[in-house]
Input
Amino acid sequence: MTPPASTPPSTPQEVPLPPGSFGLPLLGETLDFLRGSQQFINARRKQHGDVFRTNILGGKTVFLIGAEANQWIFAGEGKYLKNRWSYAIRQLLGARCLSLIEGQEHLERRRLLAPHFSYAAMRDFVPTIEALATRHFEQWAARPGDFRLWDAMRTLTFEIALTLIFGQNSVDVPFLLRHFQTWTAGLFSVAPVNLPFTPFGRALASKQAMLDSLDRVVSERQQRTEQPPDLLGSLINSRDDAGNPLPRETIVEELQLLLFAGHDTTVTAMSNLMLLLAQHPEELQKGRDALAALPTPLTLDTLRGTPRLTWLLFEGMRLIPPIGGAFRATTQEVVYNGYRIPEGWTVMVSIGATRAEANWTEPEHFDPERFSPERQEQKKPGTYIPFGGGPRICLGQHFAMVEMSVMLALLLKHYTWELVPGQDLQYVLFPFPKPKSGIQLRFHRAGAQSR
Ligand code: HEM
Output
């Protein structure tokens, strides 16, 4: 029988390490992992079960898979686990932003930011998101010929995020977007070498260009005697116990983190859902039927009154989680399910792997109604975690859900789309699950009478 999860261990040296292999010296099993993380996990799970060790991305790592394991990881934040980020991400994000700070400082920063990301706070954003999304969708529909959904979605969601983060302040969107794209391209560098022609080197240069530009926006806002009650205003007004404000560099790094955290995640979730809907016309039709009578302009209440929007978004992210996994590090030796995990090891939060949990009926099937009140297949804690869990649960989850609900409602109500035949829809999983073609679409306005 498997002993229960426990920490800290009573007699650590008698407890075995998890089964598995560290692979080659230095490189470990990194190449295998990068070739296909899903196959990597499946093969080891078959051989060793839901707890196994390996050595990937420069460190001894343990995979703990399943709902109970997820709960154990989330409960361990700040006790026996802390966040772990790669060298490239640490360099490119900056040490003072929410994702990289720990303990009390992390809790306080979350408390400061949380009101701007609450569900209720999203009420005022619905008209703005609707206006921006409508403008972009109309441009997509007016465009002659086929287009790549991924790129178009990136531009749209970037504009939406800028509006949330900076209010209606004018920022140079094309300039920021260009540097943002170079910056994010370097965030997941496996070999982060700082040379002018490497993705990492270019990303560092773009980071600086973005920081300078954001710094000007913050500095201009700091000159004002009164701050508007927006996200930037809260960051500027914040004081620590000694009455000190947040340094401007910290504010700028926080803004940059928020742009990053909310961007490719949303692009991935929305684009993949549009692909799934194109591949499942019966579900697309049910979505259209549910939306047909929804009045516009949209409001938080009318969106909430259309649960199918949430089922569709949830099911898309269950089948293809935008973030397949996250990294933690043990801060002391711990025992999980009879296995010893030494201090300093990486612990993977296996978000993608919980798709195979036993409580999902036909887990590989696209079935939005599994989230309906009658079925509630996600009910078991730790089973459905596209936004993570515990103290580091996604800060922007309500924002993401409202933003995506508005986009999906408009798409289902007013537009149609088909996949261009013959494109390569094979997925590349790292850093975000994306079909190789970038999803080529034909996109039209639905019949004039439906508007
Ligand atoms: C579909 C969209 C999104 C998905 C799937 C998603 C997923 C996640 C996940 C899994 C985590 C936890 C990572 C970990 O445990 O290490 C996370 C953290 C975070 N997310 Fe999101 N996210 C989304 C959208 C957003 C948006 C729109 C924002 C903000 C504008 C945002 C801001 C953040 C921040 C700041 C964190 C770090 C929280 C902390 O360390 O305390 N996310 N997100």
Notes: The chain has one domain: 12-450. DSSP finds 16 helices and twelve strands in the chain. Residues 12-450 form a domain with the Cytochrome p450 fold (CATH 1.10.630.10).
